[in-house]
Write a structure and sequence with these properties.
single chain, alpha+beta, two-stranded antiparallel ribbon
């Protein structure tokens, strides 16, 4: 599939010695990994359609579970688009360029990427709950031992509305915030309790996966990690409130979910449960082709490997991946003609004229002279259940990942100009906020603000602004950022 419209003259290339019937080249790829990749490629060759429609191999902790009925019906595709953060409406191609996403497009050839074929961030984005709407979102009393063990929205939210916990320390993050800013009307708590109301009224339930992962994912690397619990003074000047790292993370996630920070997107959107596919299982509808494999490779290597900053991957077809912050990757190659795996690029690169078994020949980018197969193990942070742990560090984060197989299209200079996925279940949106972006509430006070260290009540101007912003489900950025700062001191 075309990633760019650039055209170049084709060049002749040397065929691989393995493709000429000679002994396979000596290569240092791990034998276990080599076997796994070649086994997957054999399954792809035997039944391309089945392989294309299967979920990629997963590794690590799972994301929040979807109900079996929802997965079977594939209704999550439509439902997720109702909840997902607004993104580009253009079809893939018009907004599918890595340069429109990454902090800097520093490398565009596989040769230049050789030194960063494996890379992880210095620290993973922090894990947190996705704060499911079915449990009242940030009004969920996650540590209250009397909080009902139920998935019924009404049962859970009625408990919060009508009962007080035996221990005030077990109040929800939203309730603690209302106390902190002196909101006797509990505006933020009520907003969160009502988030699932419309869904419950229309269908009698709120899907357990629906939450604010679209806020947690960017906040997890745009907001510094809260490292310890803090006790701060409430607006009444008497009551002390203890905010645990999980409480502070929750407020940061909600701020990023409910406000409108600057965001860059690339990729496509598909609202079709079962789009039309060709004989090989490749999706034909351009609106459902999503992020090009070449764009994906360029974005991951440049953003994680070079810029050393996370980005969010968002997948529709893979129901276990939705708004996850990237942590790392590693990749090796395979020769798409022989289906042999290698660590050496020259062994895996095939001239277009020599690639006689190309199932995606009709879709290759204009100007393609060579094609190379890639097997990438991508890793990302996933959600964890909130707790009253008094400290937090990267050791408490949960990491998951998947292996993606695809081919890259190279022009005569070796530049990546496109690619084709071997799996339909791959990231469709890639997005992030530019460095230094700040999420703020609609009522955020402007100008120079007083410092708040938690030893006194929140400034009165903040209290007033906070009560107003809570009407829109937005905690005040000044409060959230101050809590983070205090927790890191």
């Amino acid at each position: 599939m075309n990633m760019t419209l650039s055209k170049t003259m084709g060049l002749c290339a040397l065929a691989l010695v393995a493709a000429c019937g000679e002994p396979e080249p000596s290569d240092n790829l791990d034998p276990i990994l080599k076997g796994q990749i070649e086994d997957a490629l054999a399954r792809f060759e035997a039944d391309p359609s089945a392989f294309m429609n299967a979920l990629p191999e997963k590794a690590g902790a799972p994301s929040p579970a979807f109900s079996a009925d929802l997965v079977k019906s594939r209704a999550f595709i439509t439902a997720k688009n109702e909840r997902r953060k607004d993104g580009p409406a253009d079809a893939p191609g018009s907004n599918d360029l890595a340069k429109n996403l990454v902090d800097s497009l520093a490398v565009t050839t596989l040769a230049d990427m050789n030194s960063i074929r494996s890379s992880s961030l210095a620290e993973s984005a922090w894990s947190d709950d996705y704060w499911g709407l079915y449990a009242g979102s940030l009004a969920k009393r996650y540590s209250d031992p009397a909080f009902p063990q139920s998935e019924d929205w009404k049962v859970l939210t009625d408990y919060v509305r009508n009962k007080q916990p035996a221990n005030p320390d077990d109040l929800s993050p939203a309730e603690k915030y209302d106390l902190l800013v002196g909101d006797v009307g509990k505006t933020l708590t009520k907003f969160n309790l009502d988030e699932g109301k419309a869904y419950y009224a229309s269908s009698g339930k709120v899907e357990t996966w629906m939450g604010i992962c679209h806020g947690w994912a960017p906040a997890s690397f745009m907001v510094q990690r809260p490292t310890k619990a803090v006790e701060v003074l409430a607006a009444d000047g008497k009551t002390k409130i203890k905010f645990y790292p999980s409480d502070i993370k929750a407020l940061a996630s909600l701020l990023w979910a409910s406000s409108d920070p600057a965001t860059k997107f690339i990729g496509g959107r598909c609202n079709v449960k079962d789009p039309v596919k060709d004989a090989n299982g490749r999706i034909k509808d351009t609106a459902c082709r999503d992020t090009n494999a070449g764009t994906w490779h360029l974005a991951v290597v440049n953003q994680i490997g070079k810029s050393r900053r996370s980005m969010v991957i968002d997948a529709t077809y893979d129901y276990e991946v939705w708004n996850q912050p990237m942590y790392g990757y590693s990749y090796s190659y395979f020769n798409p003609q022989t289906n042999k795996a290698y660590s050496t690029l020259s062994y895996a690169k095939v001239a277009v004229a020599d690639y006689t078994t190309d199932k995606f020949k009709a879709y290759r980018a204009p100007g393609t002279t060579h094609i190379v197969g890639v097997s990438m193990d991508a890793r990302w942070t996933v959600e964890t259940y909130p707790s009253h742990a008094t400290t937090d560090s990267a050791t408490r984060d949960a990491i998951s990942g998947a292996r993606y197989l695809y081919t890259l299209e190279l022009d005569s200079t070796g530049k990546i100009i496109g690619g084709e996925w071997h799996q339909n279940a791959h990231p469709d949106f890639l997005w992030l906020s530019p460095p230094g972006t700040r999420a703020v509430s609609a009522s955020e006070p402007t100008g120079t603000q007083p410092a708040w260290d938690g030893k006194t009540a929140v400034p009165s101007t903040w209290q007033t602004a906070a009560r107003t912003s809570s009407v829109y489900g937005q905690p005040l950025a000044n409060v959230v950022e101050s809590l983070v700062k205090i927790s890191r001191q």
